Amino acid sequence: MRAVRMTAPGVLEQVEVPTPTPGPGEVLVRVGAVGACHSDLHILDAAPGVFPTPLTLGHEIAGTVDAVGDGVTGWSGGDRAAVYGIIGCGTCRGCLHGRENQCRTVPVGGVGLSRDGGLAEYVTVPASRLLPVGDLELTQAAPLTDAGLTPYHAIELARPALRPGTTCVVIGIGGLGHMAVQILAATTAVRIIAVDSDVAALDLATRVGAHHVVPAGPDTVDRIRELVGPAPDGADVVVDCVGVDATLATARGVVATGGRLLLVGLGGGTLPVRPVADEPPTVPFETSVEVPFWGTRAELQEVIALGRAGLLTADVQTFPLEHAPEAYRLLRAGEIHGRAVIVP
Ligand code: NAD
Ligand code: ZN
Ligand code: ZN
After folding, report:
1. Given pLDDT bands bounded at 50, 70 and 90, which one contains residue 77?
2. Domain of 217?
3. Which residues surround ligand 1 with Cβ inside 6 Å?
4. Which of the listed residues 16, 98, 223, 321 has the most CB atoms within 10 Å of its CB?
């Protein structure tokens, strides 16, 4: 079969590989759609040895069941499913509580992270990773598994703070951010302020439900402050889907006293947190900072329900498998809007 693999650190290419056979408890999935996540670029850029090579990338997968391994019940050929990408150890404290996104195994197991992913015609996954998607388009189901699930989980962490009449700032309206805006619009009555450096991303934010858009630049904090008022007032929740120094500075510059910072983007920036009494604080008193990771299987089921109800729709640009390297080149160049989805 055809697969797009990281054959060496930083090298992505299409190769021919044997079609895998499902082991005991596993399912062979015919990949219908796989999202191109910005994290795949971080994987390609990671130091040698952090991720195995060769590795078929792609951790945002939806498809149809092709064959089942020994002992698999409840799934049969033709069933349509989304893949929950994390494969927790199953025995640590996080996994035992159903929070595999808090698995204490390093590195955490995952489809397209520790074993071959979905940028291929077929992928094998443990049957327990599959969730039914009904008649949802597979190009819609795939982005739900990460671009949808990750901001959903982050927003769930901040759920108590998202009261009607409060304000949430979403920074970075790409694959994750444009889903974050919709999740907020569908599940809360908060005022949504979207921030991005790209004009097309801001247009997308407006189309999917943002109430205000602010271009990222030197005066971003001032522009947001005009909307949320001066400190110690401010944004009740900030979801940073970029995570570079500039966006983290915006996040802490606009968050209210007692607010919440959700650092979703893995851009490598630093947020200074210095508890101090007699200076302008680095973050206001009572602020909480969370670093969410992906989400739980139960949350993915809820995200799929939002998708099936028509409340969460990825803005999708599709590419055939042989154009996957081009899709990632465009993603790196900031030329993908919404989510690039590869259809093998
Ligand atoms: P993306 O490339 O689709 O979107 C990024 C968006 O941020 C783009 O719209 C871009 O214009 C905007 N942007 C870039 N720099 C900016 C800046 N300085 N100011 C304002 N906007 C800026 O990426 P994505 O797939 O949505 O992923 C976003 C980040 O989230 C990545 O770092 C990714 O690795 C990370 N991620 C984290 C998790 C997690 O579990 N924490 C899961 C998935 C992805
Ligand atoms: Zn991802
Ligand atoms: Zn675990």
Report:
1. very high
2. 150-290
3. 37-39, 42, 146, 150, 171-177, 195-198, 201, 216, 241-244, 246-247, 264-267, 292-294, 331, 334
4. 321
